[in-house]
Structures are given as structure tokens and as C-alpha cells.
Amino acid sequence: MIKKVITHKVVQVLTDKGGEFVNEAMEAWYNSRGIEHIQVGPKSSQLKLCERTHQSLVEMTKAMMEQSGLPRSLWSEAKRNAVYLKNRSCNKGTQEVPYEMFIGAKSDVHHIRKFKALAYVHVPATPGRRKDNSNAKLGYVLGYAENVVVCKVYFPAEHTAKFVSDLRVAEE
């Protein structure tokens, strides 16, 4: 599902003829929204900025995965976190923050924590729960939601990741 969060209209999409963007379904989607799809060669100079940004995100993701020691299955979560952080960091070339340029509002970064910071997620009381049961579940911060201040937390005991809002984070 694609949800429009901003008022900017996309008028062009530039791709390198990759299969994920060049197919009947995507062409129908572009056409239904009046978007011009421009296809260039894979080594086109027009794609240098995009390719460099992608390379930078991959390197950030590698560093987070290496430092964290988390399972490789969480690569996409680390990559999503890298994108989130990059969009809220000052761009060297423009000296501006991409999120702020695009959305037109100051980005709030007070909630950002270290990747794989220890998180204690509150477990609500339920009828019949014993008093000596833990009030918190142990997890690790993986990332954030786009439009609300919640953290994505990985629970190693369950091998699951969920968005949660009621947590305490312990950073070193």
C-alpha cells in the first residue's frame, strides 16, 4: 500500500530499467497517476546521486549489522533504520536535512536511540497473571515508525519484531 503523506506531486520517476520498476503493473501505476517514467541505462550519469545514496545506505546497514551482532534476517530492519536516520541528518552538499526540505517542518529526533539499544517493553497486567511474573519483556531497538513516535523492537526470545510505545531504553 502506498500512502500519500505530503502534498508534493511526483511528476517523474527515473529508473535504470530494473525489473522492479519496469513491468506492466508499475507502468499502469505510473500512468494512472500521470507520472512520467524515464528509463536510462544502468551506468547513466543521471543515476550517480541515487547510486551513491544507495551505496551509503548499504554501508550504514552493514556497520549496524556488524556492530549489533543481530541475525542477518533483520537486514531489512537495519536498512529501514539507515534510511530513517539519513533522512533526518544534515546533507553535506546542501547543508539541509532531507526530511525538513521535503516535509517543510523541523524533524523531531529526540526519540532516536542507538541501533540495538536494550529495551524493556512494558507487559500490561492481565487477569490471572501471577504477581511474581515480569512486568517487562527484553528487546532491542531496531527503528522507528514514520508518523508516530514508537519504536520497532526485536524480541530475541520470540524471534519477532513489533512496534511498541510503552518502553524504557537503556543505552550505554
UniProtKB/TrEMBL annotation:
Q: Which Gene3D superfamilies would you find in this protein's record? A: Ribonuclease H-like superfamily/Ribonuclease H (3.30.420.10)
Do you know which InterPro entries this protein is assigned to? Integrase_cat-core, Retrotran_Ty1/copia-like, RNaseH-like_sf, RNaseH_sf
**GO terms for biological process, alphabetical:** DNA integration
Annotated ranges, domain Integrase catalytic: 1-106
User: Known PROSITE patterns for this protein?
Assistant: INTEGRASE
The record's GO molecular-function terms, alphabetically, read: nucleic acid binding
Which superkingdom is the protein from? Eukaryota
Protein name (record)? Integrase catalytic domain-containing protein
